[in-house]
Amino acid sequence: MKKLLISLLILLPLSATAQVTLNGSIQSDVLVPENDEAIGAEKTEDVVTNTYVTLQMTSKYVDAGARLEYLDHPLPGYEKDFKGWGVPHFYVKGRYGMAELTAGTFYEQFGSGFILRTYEERSLGVDNSLLGGRLVLKPIEGLNIKLLSGKQRRYWNWNKALVSGADVEMSLDEWIPSLKNKDTHLMVGASWVNRYENNKEEVFVDAVHKINFPKYVNAWDVRVSLNRGPWSVLAEYAQKDNDPSYANGYIFRKGNVAMLSGSYSKKGLSVLLQAKRSENMSFKSTGNANKAMGISSSIGHLLAFTQEHTYTLPAYYPYATQIADGEWAYQAEVGYNFKRNTPLGGKYGMNVKVNYSYVRAIDRRFLGDVSLNNLAGTLTYGGTDGYKSSFFKWGDDTYYQDLNIQLSRKLTKDFKLFLMYMNQRYNMLKIEGHGGMVRSNIFVADGKYQFSPKVTLRGEMQYMTTKGDEGDWAFGLLELSLVPHWMITISDQFNVNQSHIHYYLGQVTFTTGAHMIQLGYGRVQEGYNCSGGVCRYVPASKGFTLSYNYNF
To answer: Could you tell me the pTM of the whole model?
Structure first.
């Protein structure tokens, strides 16, 4: 099938009557590793690299594309399952009238992704695309239908389970003139996903009884969104059939997630309020019941209702969504722009933003006392419904809390200042499996001075106090931008009162046209790289780095 699709990739666009457009990209990250006992970095090879080459061709009726991935000597953290090379992404897409048909590998998301989200995120090592077919139909204005089926990628293979689904979205304002005339957008949607797997593995409850894994696991999702003027509201609910697995302790309880999100945005003011409750929503296309398959085999995705920080120390303890056990998650944010030439706004104005997120365990009252003995160890509630739970009741544990205040103000024509204070609670035992509750206070100052239209100097100073982990950290950075080609960056992260280790880094970046080259040297601390509640462990490393990016 792969050979056929690659042949179509080459031939079909060339045979189209419309003009063919070729585009693509190259991304190559190279590390020359060094040993460093102080930070635990080990040199395993002389040179390691993650390299991706993407090629896409588009025409009026037919598109095609492929991506070559070379990770035969991969970067630290990618060694085990990622090692290898090949063309795991390839597709042909045809369009005619109201229909669009894709054959090959593709990415898709239904609604907020609760029951289906396939995507690529290289920094996390996620590429869980589907290999199969997808049909998109738009028979009338305001109606969008999707049908798909395929097997999910897991590193260099595809899981045995067949994932199929359907999604319908209707924009009712296209059919109701009174809504359209009042600039009101009303959308309702529904989705269904099925995983078929004839799992013949044996997991025993006791010496006689074993888990009867269901061949079919269904999940469905309904949602409605309303947008009118500055107001926006989204409500969504999803449910999954009983799906005993390693992740949930082999219980037969159904999973569900409910979300309500509202926002208000008008010139000078923005407000966001969100709440989400989930339980037992681990949904994977795994072919191995006895192992934790990780994020690579996830069919669904639950966003973390926490702010994704870009500054180093605020992002030091990132939150990972507790998909299997469940959680209550809340987020609120208010932003306000003080106008120019006012007492608080000053000459150039000022922006203030306050963000608060809180994640708590759900109520779980466990049932029975059935022991499950298998390769994973002794699990107490396997083969039962697991627990009872009251929807609105909290559990005992706080998983995460983040309260931060951000202030951005232009002090002079050439100087802009950003200040941030953050108070955080991070349940390391729950999120990472060791330690306890980490409490931290984080301070950030970021100043940028523009010497001329082509020369800008930016500096960061960050400090974090912690209790319950490694003590205090300090971070400093200087970044010189020489438009249009050069950027020079130096930084250092320093453990103040325990290990006293410095994580220094220097980088020089050169950009011209569609080319970007970056050369660096320094240390990288071990830890977790997270995005949207999904995290990947990154080991410590040290050495010279070279990155090249090209888009055409």
So the answer is: 0.91
